[in-house]
């Protein structure tokens, strides 16, 4: 197939909105030839074939291995975007076999046997397929490269008797300030500490997984996202032919908690971030199929280079009781959706998930994937920090602390289903409030790993020393979390360095001497304060020493000097003193 036809096919299948198409056009110009390879991967991962007449059931096929894949770990640019590779490099995460796409030989065999390929999962090495032929599925199950086959969705779907989403409490009054009533969900987390320094998520990409984003392409609270091209793309994993802007309102409300920006009416916790809007939830029913949608969304987010995932979704009870999870299944790494969420974290993505709204029913526990050992499960509290009664409880099966932390989820201020400002309740909204702050923390600490970020959020929380099964470690303080990360960056400096930095303390100038003879590379040198604000940056090529002059304007006190070359960096704690 010609490259121009490949791109045309991908754009059609991706179901992007107008603003997203413009963003993709710019991306194509920047990425050049590599984009064709990356997009071809997305086609392999997200390929969909729809029959016109006969309804089809869905199945998960677990594959034995990846024999026959043409991709190589040594050439990740063939299946990951440069942004995804850069994210791995910053966090020192190796690219391994789980990153390799599934075997096209196996895919061809399945398609030639008559199956429609709906999703594939490189991380879990499996395929979601559709067929109306149960006899064919029995034949597929005995193929030598197939480990197992699992039924995940019936051909004929009936509307579930219950809705998993909380209904909003409509109230369109708001306070006369830029944040309006949203100020309280920000200050409860000491989020203003980062916002005052200008850390509002700029440059951070967030993927939101939900049931739809009704009218998010029209509502005024998202004007700044649209005009600046920061809705990077949409994708409907449930029905790629359907417009996710015409589906359920829930994801739109979640988006407003993070990216809403209507000064005087509502400002979210990360209003300067950029977003991918993925519909993975099928609101017409509850089936295991949706977990596979979730994993497919996470893998696409990873390949695009996304930094943060917010999922206000969760699973334990299905329309078919044979699919139900037990509490024993929620052990942190058993269900397919939890495995996918854990893997996303391992690839360098910060993952936030609603703990669940089951606190008042017989189940009461957290729901997958919030049980994930790497997932930040978010409970709900009210304006006073008191736990909402509906918020699911822990621990994970086996005793791990769950939920991890808590945020405002009782009467959260946001854009409601009718497009008006008001209040809604549910851990569905505590999770994005916290995820937005996670994006701001990452912006302030761009070289921190997801492990460091998660630990800093938990350590900063109100009951870190005495966690419980209701709120976990408690309500985070993002001022403290930022300080923990800054302190960690200075306490873990190498004692053996190729550089000598003198004088220290300094007043006007610094001499940086290269202690490795013959070493000559390009370096970027920056100086920032303990809040992460960049005060000085310049590039050098050095074989001997570098002289930084005219530094008298820098503020007195402790500063952090960083020397970077390629993927390597060293940090030094400096003291700026008056002359």
Provide structural commentary.
By secondary structure, the chain is of the alpha/beta class. It has 3 domains: 3-153, no CATH class; 180-488, Rossmann fold (3-Layer(aba) Sandwich), CATH 3.40.50; 499-576, Immunoglobulin-like. Helices cover 27% and strands 22% of the residues. The chain contains 15 helices and 22 strands. It has helices spanning 3-14, 18-31, 33-46, 82-90, 104-112, 134-140, 183-187, 192-195, 223-227, 250-259, 289-304, 336-346, 427-444, 450-459, 478-491, and strands at 57-63, 116-121, 126-131, 146-153, 205-210, 231-236, 261-262, 266-267, 274-279, 308-311, 350-354, 376-381, 405-408, 412-415, 421-424, 499-502, 510-514, 521-529, 534-542, 545-548, 557-565, 568-576. The strands form 6 sheets. Strands 6-9-5-10-11-12-13 form a 7-stranded parallel beta sheet, with helices on both faces. The protein has a 4-stranded antiparallel beta sheet with strand order 2-3-1-4, sandwiched between helices. A hairpin with a 2-residue loop joins strand 21 and strand 22. Helix 10 (250-259) runs parallel beside helix 13 (427-444) and helix 14 packs across helix 15. The longest helix is centred in the last third of the chain and has 18 residues, at 427-444. Residues 1-52 and 167-176 have low confidence and may be disordered.
By secondary-structure content and strand pairing, the structural class works out as: alpha/beta
Q: Helical residue percent?
A: 25-40%
What is the domain tally? 3
The CATH topology of the largest domain corresponds to Rossmann fold
Question: Taking all residues together, what is the mean pLDDT?
Answer: 85
CATH-level-2 architecture of the largest domain: 3-Layer(aba) Sandwich
- Strand proportion, as a percent range, falls in 15-25%
Strand order of the largest sheet: 6-9-5-10-11-12-13
For this structure, what is the CATH homologous superfamily of the largest domain?
Peptidase S8/S53 domain
What is the overall shape? globular
Q: What summary fits the major beta sheet?
A: 7 strands, parallel
Number of helices: 15
* CATH class label of the largest domain: Alpha Beta
Number of E-state strands: 22
Rounded to the nearest angstrom, the distance between the terminal CA atoms is: 68 Å
Low-confidence stretches: 1-52, 167-176
What Rg do the Cα atoms give? Answer: 24 Å
């Amino acid at each position: 197939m010609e490259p121009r036809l490949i791109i045309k096919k991908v754009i059609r299948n991706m179901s992007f909105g107008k603003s997203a198409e413009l963003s993709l056009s710019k991306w194509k110009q920047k990425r050049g030839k590599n984009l064709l390879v990356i997009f071809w991967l997305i086609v392999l991962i997200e390929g969909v074939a729809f029959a016109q007449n006969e309804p089809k059931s869905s199945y998960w096929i677990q594959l034995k291995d990846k024999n026959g894949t043409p991709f190589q770990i040594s050439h990740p640019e063939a299946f990951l975007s440069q942004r995804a590779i850069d994210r791995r490099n910053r966090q020192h995460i190796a690219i391994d076999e789980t990153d390799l796409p599934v075997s096209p030989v196996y895919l061809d065999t399945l398609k030639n046997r008559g199956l429609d390929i709906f999703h594939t999962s490189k991380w879990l090495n499996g395929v979601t397929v559709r067929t109306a032929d149960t006899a064919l599925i029995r034949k597929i199950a005995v193929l030598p490269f197939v480990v197992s086959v699992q039924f995940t969705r019936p051909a004929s779907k009936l509307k579930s008797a219950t809705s998993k989403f909380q209904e909003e409490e409509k109230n369109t009054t708001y306070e006369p300030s830029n944040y309006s009533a949203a100020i309280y969900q920000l200050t409860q987390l000491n989020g203003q500490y980062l916002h005052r320094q200008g850390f509002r998520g700029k440059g951070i990409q967030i993927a939101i997984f939900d049931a739809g984003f009704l009218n998010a392409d029209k509502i005024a609270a998202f004007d700044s996202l649209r005009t600046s091209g920061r809705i990077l793309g949409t994708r409907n994993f449930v029905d790629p032919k359907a417009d996710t802007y015409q589906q359920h309102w829930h994801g739109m409300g979640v988006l407003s908690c993070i990216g809403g920006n209507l000064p005087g009416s509502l400002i979210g916790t990360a209003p300067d971030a950029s977003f991918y809007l993925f519909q993975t939830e099928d609101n017409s029913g509850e089936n295991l199929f949706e977990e596979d949608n979730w994993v497919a969304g996470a893998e696409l987010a990873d390949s695009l280079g996304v930094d943060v995932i917010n999922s206000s979704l969760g699973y334990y009870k299905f329309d078919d009781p044979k699919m139900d999870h037990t509490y024993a299944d929620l052990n942190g790494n058993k269900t397919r959706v939890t495995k996918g969420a854990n893997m996303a974290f391992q690839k360098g993505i910060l993952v936030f998930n609603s703990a669940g709204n089951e606190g008042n029913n017989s189940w009461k526990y957290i729901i997958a994937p919030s049980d994930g050992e790497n997932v930040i499960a978010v409970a709900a509290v009210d304006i006073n920090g008191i736990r909402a009664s509906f918020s699911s409880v822990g621990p994970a099966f086996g005793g791990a602390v769950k939920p991890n932390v808590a945020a405002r989820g009782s009467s959260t201020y946001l854009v409601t289903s009718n497009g008006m400002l008001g209040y809604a309740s549910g851990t569905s909204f505590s999770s994005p409030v916290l995820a937005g702050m996670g994006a701001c923390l990452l912006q302030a600490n761009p070289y921190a790993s997801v492990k460091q970020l998660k630990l800093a959020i938990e350590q900063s929380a109100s009951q870190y020393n005495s966690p419980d099964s209701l709120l976990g470690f408690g309500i985070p303080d993002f001022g403290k979390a930022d300080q923990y990360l800054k302190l960690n960056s200075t306490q873990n400096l190498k004692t053996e360095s190729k550089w000598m930095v003198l004088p220290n303390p300094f007043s006007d100038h610094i001499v940086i001497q290269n202690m490795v003879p013959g070493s000559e590379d390009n370096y970027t040198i920056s100086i920032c304060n303990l809040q992460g604000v960049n005060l000085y940056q310049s590039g050098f090529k050095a074989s001997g020493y570098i002289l930084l002059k005219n530094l008298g304007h820098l503020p007195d006190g402790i500063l952090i000097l960083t020397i970077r070359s390629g993927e390597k960096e060293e940090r030094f704690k400096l003291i700026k003193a008056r002359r």
